[in-house]
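Bit of a strange request maybe. I'm writing a small parser for structure token strings and I need a real example to test against, not something I typed by hand. Could someone generate the tokens for this chain?
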Amino acid sequence: MKILGVITARGGSKGIPRKNIKELNGKPLIAYTIEAAQKSGIFDRIILSTDDLEIAEVAKKYGCEVPFMRPAELAQDGTPHLPVMQHAVSWLKEKENYNPDLVAILQPSATLRQSWHIKEAFDLLVKKEVDSVVAVSEIPGHYSPYWAVVIDENNLGKLFNGDPIRNRIPRRQSLPQKTYSHCGALYMFKTKFLFDEDNPNFYGDKVAIYPMEEKYSINIDTPDDWKIAEHAISVLS
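Reply from user aminoacidic:
Good idea to test on real output. This should exercise your parser:
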């Protein structure tokens, strides 16, 4: 089985300028993801998709392949991950005749993701015989969708499921189940779904969920996130 890890890191980060190569506790941010991918031992190739030459050089120093530079039109603020991944996989197929069975998206902003998270997620995908595996983190009870409220056109509120607010579950302990959200740490999927004729995607139909502890699920988008990650790394190291 050929497994490709793709680290996505464009140069135009807005919340934290030059975020991907800014030093976090003595190391460029992107180095944490490269090292976790390498230590996981599951990839036969780990590549970088970037439009930025400086990011490319830093990644190479940490042992990451940079087989191409991402086209500028795929490095805009609103560019989704799907065409970026399609470009990466297509380039490798056309230029190097490399066809991975599985692909993983590894975002540098998920700095606290560990090598064993990646390995466990892969083992889960194989064991469950699923199309993909996605890392998630638990939504705290006070943010539960069971308590979410929407406001209608008359500025009146109701629960997200359409029930009147009086039906709100009063206690966190009484919520019917835990809920989770994507934490951005890992997506791993069978390559064929990237090029599905009707609905190209990262998931397929059978998606295994890999829950991660909150302390490992920090996704750095703002200066406040950066401070939280600095503290978390110092505690975990």
